[in-house]
Amino acid sequence: MTDQDDTEYEETTEDIEESDTVEDEFDSDEDFEQGSSAIWSRFGEGDLPPLPKPAAVNRAATAGVEVGLPPEFATALAHAAVNPSELRSLLRRPTRVNIAGGVIEAIDLDLYVPGLVPLPTNNRTMEKRVYPAAGAQGHAGPLTGPRSEPGETTTLWIEGEDVSHVQDETERAREYILSNNNLRESIAARGIAMPVNVVFFEQRHRDGEPSMPLLGTADGSSRITNAQHVLTLTNSQTHYHYPTNRDDYRRFIGAISGADPDALRPAARKRLIRQRNALITPARVFLRFTPTREGYDYARAVNAFVGMLHVDPPRPWSQTGKLEAMAEAVLDVLRGAEVLDDSVHDYLAGLLTPEQAEAEGLPVERDEQAAFVLAALLREHHRDLVNRGIQDVTAKKSVSVGRRTDVIAELALRATRSIATTLDPTDPERKRAERMRAPYLRCVRLARYATAEWKITSRSPTELLEAALEELQDDSASTHSDPDLWVNRLELAAVAQYHLTAWGGLGREAMGNTEADKRGPQQILEAMLSDDQGLRLLAQAIIDGRAGTHPRRVTESGDFQRGVRDQYGRWEQDPAGKPMPIEDVWLRYEVYSAGAATLPRPVTPPNETPRMKATRLKSQIARYIEQINLDVDELANVEEVDGGPLLDKEGWAKPSEILGYLMSAHSQIGYWARVAERQMPRSNE
What we know:
Shape: globular
Helix content: 40-55%
Radius of gyration: 30 Å
Number of helices: 27
């Protein structure tokens, strides 16, 4: 608590003592159980606030019920409050916070960290979740929620299969946060400085076990997870034991707040001081949500609020986490607008197992699952709703086409990413899943996906090919553009691109100032939809991909193209050879060449040794870097018409991807330099 907070507290106390109209706003010191003498704490050189007496906690809980909080909420908040008297006062004058779709009443106060839980559906961990749609054995899928009742409410709810499922998922989230967002030493040294945002939710269980009333951090889960690690708390304690055994909860807090560090040995004293710093957090508690716009409920509003903090700077999640959060918001909007029924919503969200999807008459093939998401969400008449969902969790006034398609594509790959996270990092299937993401997201930018009412029919690749070939013939004979003459080809493309991107048949466009082909994979895919060979290649990709083999080349008549590899590793046609694989370079430069781009040719000589190859590549990199420096110098000297450096006026918008490549290369080369230094013999001194 800052000095300013202390002053405000003293002034408020004095004002209340002089007033007869407000009764017992703040209690005297008799509300607290007395601890030891003054100790060092996160509050500076002053005392750590003493443990509140049970009577003060009970009065605060009663005050919560009197202002309309459910008894479970009021009780949990009263026990978490460091100063129950302050809580009673704040409950009578909450702050109104405008957020997406409504108004939240909130209060700001200090809370005990053991009285909180990280929200178990924290979006930061989304990229590591295993969804039921993946069909992975031994994984029950993520917890459902948070969700809420429509209209004015104080409560969210999250649901799991049983207690074991909840504990597994919360532990998975805990391990991910501790590994990827390590704040332990900072919190142990200085405590939690910035407030966390706290909501009340019920942790429900489908097996009939009683719900647990919990205070969860909608924003701040990383801080609370790390603080609880410093306190050596387990998820079982915070989620199930302490909410039902308040005596143990109070004993835990009292053992830390009431201990005397000066009476301990150095190691124990250091541990106690670390725990004191982690014991209390500033918090903003959301008390009640009131909708002001149709289609918004408490859960959607909270997700939008948290997304505004993390999808865009200053505290972003990973790229996958950001897109996943936007995808969740999109699904909420579509369900709120009654575009999706519950079964389709859960299917798109990856919450149905393959068996459940089949029972609902929905596709179960992985490639069709992904394509179904595209067909459902890329439709032009859904664009405004999709945009609204994305805008709910970002600070953007408008949504670009690229961002919209990236969000939908990320959702389409949810099941694939889920199964990949369960595999060994060296597993080829996991590597394909990781490699396909960038080109798949770009393929989804194919503009025609949004212009026709196509859908997934689960026809066999052969049946789909026949319909697509007939459609192509009809389209060629037509005198006007008809979107209906694309529905079969688009279905074929949407299913096939899954396998082509996974196996390298469609890759990302070339980067940098080179003569290589700059077309995105969506442009290559567009070209494939315009001739017989392209359609046959797409169908063959589905057949081979489902069989777990690299998609193979076929001719316009459907025969395999056979060949052998030359000494450089390139394929050359040979009727006696084996079917050749579909490769991005082959599609770009031979079958669907743009005409201007130059095919990159291997310069590796036959029988090149590893040392020769390393020397050649180092020399090549040095030349590239030298050329980059020359180009940057030249760019800096480009003059605008009226004089003065052009770039000093216009700058270079969004060079983040290029800078990322440069930083990665700098880091790797710097590491190799240190390795070389260690290998050099030391000179005699």
